[in-house]
Amino acid sequence: MEDNHRAWRRSSYSNQEGGDCVEVADGLRAGAVVPVRDSKRPHGPVLRFGTASWTAFIGELKV
Q1: Domain that holds residue 18
Q2: CB 40 within 8 A of CB 11
Q3: Residue 28 class from Cβ within 10 Å (0-12 exposed, 13-18 middle, 19+ buried)?
């Protein structure tokens, strides 16, 4: 699926006033890459992370 056809989500901690946020593509299957983009540039570049790397990154944020 192309990135512009995905549903994107951002953290519930981010405000809806256009702050500095990243968005993560929703509805990914296990083992897929995790697309991440800048909320201020939805048509800009998309970074893709392996699920293991993304899970480790999120785990460190929650510490």
Answers
A1: 3-61
A2: no
A3: middle
Residue with tokens 């480790």: 56
User: Is the distance from CB of 4 to CB of 15 less than 8 angstroms?
Assistant: no
Closest to 34 (Cα-Cα) out of 56, 14, 19? 56
Name the token pair of 19. 């702050």
Tokens 């256009």, residue located: 18
Number of domains in the chain: 1
Residue range 3-55, pLDDT digits in tens: 566 788 887 777 666 667 889 988 777 677 899 999 888 889 999 999 889 88
